[in-house]
Amino acid sequence: MLSFKLLRETKSVLINLLECQLRNTLSRAISTTPSHFKYRYLPTLNDPERDVEYSEPGYSHEDDGPLIQIPTRKQFREQVENIKNEFKVWKQEVKDGLESNYDIIVPRDQIHKIYSFSEEGTLEKWSTLCDANDGTGFSSCSLTRSPSGHALFSGNLSTKLPLDGRTVRSGFCSAIGPRAMKSFKRKTSYEWSQYTHVVLKVRGDGRQYLVNLSTEGIYDLNWFNLYSYPLYTRGGPYWQITKLPFSKFIFGNRGYIQDTQVPIPLCDIAWIGISLTDDIDGPFNLEIEYIGLEDVSSHTEEHAYETYNFDNYFYK
């Protein structure tokens, strides 16, 4: 009886919040474009943080041609459909929470696949990013389906600097996994504290890639915190299975290795990604079959790097 009452009250609160958000969304859009909604500028439930006049840094709308215009009625139906889908996700979350068993132990020495790119819909959740997106370089990359049915991370890396007088280094391409989210686009984190390794089955071109783990915090100072570890690939037609221990990931911020190395907070992982920053101009290709996690029984290391605690002489 208590659980039913809690579910009913929670649902009522969420409905009120969504009604307010939908009302604000429609009023802002109507005041900006009276006759039609401009799809690019309209904030939706798919991207609740997008503002009406928002645009990516260094992005110009002039090269995209005319904007796609969607009538008010159709846009309203899309919003309602998004709300219905989010309620389904929320319902499943509540059900899983009531039935969850916190004594579950992860089987050791078994790979738990979190992204199997041969499955339908997995590849579409990933995105790509390169220096050309923010006007700091000329690299290009894409994440498509390979002829064998897996993910193909490919493109061209360029270390050429733009003549803007500000950029001092360039040349990176990244494939980024989906951000950990709950229903109604609420940010959350992945819980990987019961695992010791991240496992990848890849087929590369001999170049050195990086596997990145993001731990986005509340404050903007921590938004670019990354834990990275090299992924060495072999050229040729053969697949390789690489296991990377979490204890050896290197802590960095905006591409710079930090002096103080700390263990990864595995209970606060925002997303996982793969990047290329080896400063070698030219094309690259990395085929990925799956990314998984494993608890290796023989691995007992908690943190591979030394930490130093100096006495504070300032207050003595």
From TrEMBL:
It is found in: Mitochondrion. The keyword Cytoplasm does not apply. Keywords: Chaperone, Mitochondrion. One of its GO terms (cellular component) is mitochondrion. The keyword Nucleotidyltransferase does not apply. Pfam families: CIA30 (PF08547). One of its GO terms (molecular function) is unfolded protein binding. Coiled coil: none annotated. Residues 116-288 form the NADH:ubiquinone oxidoreductase intermediate-associated protein domain. InterPro entries: Galactose-bd-like_sf (IPR008979), NADH-UbQ_OxRdtase-assoc_prot30 (IPR013857), NDUFAF1 (IPR039131). GO terms for biological process: mitochondrial electron transport, NADH to ubiquinone; mitochondrial respiratory chain complex I assembly. Belongs to the CIA30 family. This is NADH:ubiquinone oxidoreductase intermediate-associated protein 30 domain-containing protein.
